[in-house]
From TrEMBL:
Location of the protein in the cell: Cytoplasm
Catalyzed reaction equations: guanosine(2069) in 23S rRNA + S-adenosyl-L-methionine = N(2)-methylguanosine(2069) in 23S rRNA + S-adenosyl-L-homocysteine + H(+); guanosine(2445) in 23S rRNA + S-adenosyl-L-methionine = N(2)-methylguanosine(2445) in 23S rRNA + S-adenosyl-L-homocysteine + H(+)
Enzyme class at the top of the EC tree: transferase
A Gene Ontology cellular-component term: cytoplasm
InterPro entries associated with the record: 23SrRNA_methyltr_KL (IPR017244), DNA_methylase_N6_adenine_CS (IPR002052), RlmKL-like_Mtase (IPR000241), RlmKL-like_Mtase_CS (IPR053943), RlmL_1st (IPR054170), SAM-dep_methyl-trfase (IPR019614), SAM-dependent_MTases_sf (IPR029063), THUMP_dom (IPR004114)
Protein name: Ribosomal RNA large subunit methyltransferase K/L
Record SUPFAM superfamilies: S-adenosyl-L-methionine-dependent methyltransferases
Protein task: Specifically methylates the guanine in position 2445 (m2G2445) and the guanine in position 2069 (m7G2069) of 23S rRNA.
Main location class: cytoplasm
Family: Belongs to the methyltransferase superfamily. RlmKL family.
Lineage of source species: Bacteria, Pseudomonadati, Myxococcota, Polyangia, Nannocystales
Gene (name only): rlmKL
Known EC number: 2.1.1.173, 2.1.1.264
Residue ranges occupied by any THUMP domain in the UniProt entry: 45-171
Organism: Nannocystis pusilla
Pfam family, one: Methyltrans_SAM
Length: 730
């Protein structure tokens, strides 16, 4: 059989395991690289890697190597491959391109030149060309630029004096971590290949062979449970996939592939009876439902036990292998929710402390494997890690901590507050008493209680009834990140004590621009709404899913001003967000309200807020539209308008980007055009460096109301927003 060069990609931290896995599948000439593993073997080995590798992301079959000092040389190298051997002129293709050099600095440009070379070859030889299909093409071509000195295996061309392009067919076609058992479009908090690597590092294959149980106390959608069961029953991870890139490749050998599938199905059927007890728990009913459904689609219906159970209720299963009592060891493996992906949910140190407490009290003699985003949280578990591995969940570095839980539970740890922590505790208590009385008098259930009062604790704390939302301000570059993280951990222990609320009712987020530049970037998918009262209205807030909650607390006095201004008038709310200003206008007696926002999510939220306050009927409209387009086509006139654009937005639903400093004159003039005679525009922005262009708006009467619209609880942040009353000059 002909030998081929292959490359299997994988995240850092899994490469040694992947090399061992490939070796067991028959690979030779194995060599580790930063992004994966090079290996050699017949096509059979590449097929086995696609079907059986639990760790690989892609499996690439090398079909050409050549010089690529610039775009023209890349084009020539790609054309030296006879593409009729790999794809049909009437088929579909996609191109992935990685790497760069002095002449090819953009991967899109490199991919375009590769596509051009392939298409031009087909046009020249056949007069027709394959189409491009981004999703599940017949053939996916992968091209990687590398320095010849980094080459582990020489290909068909031997010019090695310049930058090289390695040309491959992606036999996987799409990421191999997609096993086929998850609903289309659904993503897990942990990728399946990382879950498999975590279990391998924890020694699960040997434990499973001995019949040891596995418990995931925060199982989410069940990824660790399913990977553990498939590993235990010898089921090929690719057996449930419908699509592989090799299936549309012209070099595909169907008989060989069918033989491998038949063997894999037989092994899975035999191994199904060998699945040891596997238990998954989660406090979220939706997660439990998803885990059960995923297990069923993975062929494990009834083989995995999943139930709703809070972490505080976690105990070891009653029996271990062969029915013996709890003396039998097992493995606790879990991936608790963590910061970058989900926002810091609840009180993270308290979560890890509780996990450590349940392990010590109920899992003596067991092994544990826990992912933690940083070592501070790992330390909160209160057990000494026997081993630590740095793995990558997507782009996020995480620590895999492995523990041997002592059979004799150590005495519980006692935490003492530092001098700074004690000062923070006292300040929170004092502020709660003073501001709490003020809030009660004004009918407020949501207000700011702390805002970097003590500079070392650079956080803001907002109370929403008996919930606290903590916003961590991103520390300056000169601040030691380890020290900043330690202070945040201490603050999150102090806050529930000082405010006398459960630690699980503390939510922490980092105050920085969301990815992509959006102001209200999504952080989680919990979907939990909390109703709070503010003056005349009631509002739904979401403390977990977004950077902002749906109610800007610093705009409270601005909303009251808007309500007064809108009384007896038609009211327009532009960039309405969740329509809190429209609620104030409606409750104050506006003749009608129109709330405009581009987001369907916020429009739905706005309707719920209006309904909650009895503002029903056609006179209270919610319009899903881009505000500049709405203003350009709107024919109605309004007596009061509130214009509160985001600082910056590049929403996919609109053309171009919105920059409030650059675009505010256009926005203000568009809104003024819609005013009735004697109408009033209230313009607000939270861009702290905002400068109103008075010269270009000289024909308008403008009154700066910024200072008078800062609420008492934001007195420490007098520049948190700008607010202006604008009317046409008569």
């Amino acid at each position: 059989m002909n030998e081929h060069n292959f490359f299997a990609s994988a995240p850092q931290g899994l490469l040694e395991l992947l090399a061992d896995e490939l070796r067991a599948l028959g690979a030779t000439a194995i060599r580790l690289q930063p992004a994966g593993v090079y290996f050699r073997g017949p096509l059979l080995v590449g097929y086995r890697a696609c079907l059986w590798s639990r760790l690989a992301g892609r499996v690439l079959l090398e079909v050409g190597v050549g010089p690529a000092r610039d775009a023209d040389e890349l084009y020539t190298t790609v054309q030296r491959v006879d593409w009729r051997q790999h794809m049909s002129a009437r088929g579909t293709m996609a191109v992935d391109f990685t790497g760069a050099n002095a002449a090819i600095v953009h991967t899109r440009f490199g991919a375009q030149r590769v596509k051009d070379a392939i298409v031009d070859q087909f046009n020249a030889k056949a007069g027709i060309r394959p189409d491009v299909a981004v999703r599940r093409p017949d053939v996916r071509v992968s091209v990687h630029l590398r320095k010849p000195a980094s080459s582990g295996i020489k290909g068909m061309f031997q010019e090695t004096s310049h930058d090289e392009a390695v040309i491959s067919i992606d036999l996987a076609g799409e990421a191999l971590h997609r096993r086929g058992y998850r609903e289309e479009g659904a993503e897990a908090p942990i990728k399946e290949n990382l879950a498999a690597g975590m279990l391998m590092r924890a020694g699960w294959p040997a434990l499973a062979a001995a019949g040891a149980p596995l418990v995931d106390p925060m199982c989410g959608s069940g990824t660790l449970l399913i990977e553990a069961a498939h590993m235990a029953c010898d089921r090929a991870p690719g057996l449930g996939r419908e699509y592989f890139g090799l299936l549309g490749w012209r070099g595909h050998q169907p008989a060989l592939w069918t033989e491998l599938l038949t063997e894999a199905r037989a092994r899975a059927a035999i191994g199904l009876s060998k699945v040891p007890p596997i238990y998954g728990y989660d406090g979220d009913a939706a997660a439990v439902k998803a885990a059960v459904a995923n297990a069923a689609r993975a062929g494990l219906g009834g083989r995995i036990r999943v139930e709703r159970r809070e972490l505080a209720e976690l105990v070891a299963p009653e029996t271990g292998p062969s029915g013996q009592e709890r003396e039998a060891i097992g493995l606790v493996a879990t991936n608790p929710p963590y910061g970058e992906r989900l926002g810091v949910r609840a009180d993270m140190p308290a979560l890890y402390e509780l996990l450590g407490e349940r392990l010590r009290d109920h899992f003596g003699g067991w092994k544990a494997a826990i992912l933690a985003p940083d070592l501070e949280l790992g330390h909160a578990i209160g057990l000494r890690a026997e081993r630590r591995h740095v793995l990558y969940n997507g782009a996020i570095a995480v620590n895999l901590l492995r523990f041997d839980v002592p059979r004799e539970a150590p005495p519980p740890r006692k935490y003492t507050r530092s001098e700074g922590g004690e000062a923070l505790f006292n300040r929170l208590r004092k502020n709660r008493k003073q501001l709490g009385n003020w809030a009660a008098r004004h009918g407020l259930e949501a207000y700011r209680i702390y805002d970097s009062d003590i500079p070392e604790y650079a956080i803001a704390v907002d109370l929403y009834r008996d919930w606290a939302m903590v916003q961590e301000y991103a520390a300056p570059s000169e601040i030691d990140p380890v020290r900043a993280a330690a202070r945040l951990r201490e603050a999150l222990r102090v806050i529930p004590d000082a405010l006398e609320i459960p630690a699980t009712q503390v939510v922490c987020k980092r105050r920085e621009r969301a990815k992509g530049g959006g102001q209200y970037g999504r952080r989680d998918d919990a979907g939990d709404m909390l109703e709070v009262r503010e003056g005349p209205g009631r509002f739904l807030v979401n403390l977990t899913d977004y950077l902002d909650t749906g109610l800007f607390l610093d705009h409270r006095d601005t909303r009251a001003l808007v309500g007064q201004t809108a009384r007896g008038k038609r009211f327009l709310n532009l960039f309405a967000y969740t329509a809190s200003a429209s609620v104030y206008a409606g409750k104050a007696g506006a003749l009608s309200t129109t709330s405009v926002d581009l987001s369907s999510t916020y429009c739905a939220w706005a309707r719920r807020n209006l309904e909650l306050n009895g503002l029903r009927g056609p006179q209270h409209r919610v319009v899903e539209a881009e505000c500049r387009e709405f203003m350009a086509r709107e024919l109605r006139r309004y007596g009061a308008i509130f214009l509160d654009p985001p600082t910056f937005s590049n929403s996919k639903k609109m053309e171009g980007v919105l920059d409030v400093q650059r675009d505010h004159v256009e926005l203000i003039r568009g809104a003024v055009r819609l005013l009735e005679r004697n109408g009033v525009l209230i313009f607000s922005t939270n861009y702290r460096r905002f400068r109103l262009d008075q010269e270009r708006l000289a024909d308008l009467d403008i009154e700066d109301l910024s200072a008078s619209t800062i609420p008492k609880d934001f007195a420490r942040s007098p520049k948190i927003h700008k607010c202006f009353r604008i009317t046409p000059r008569r």
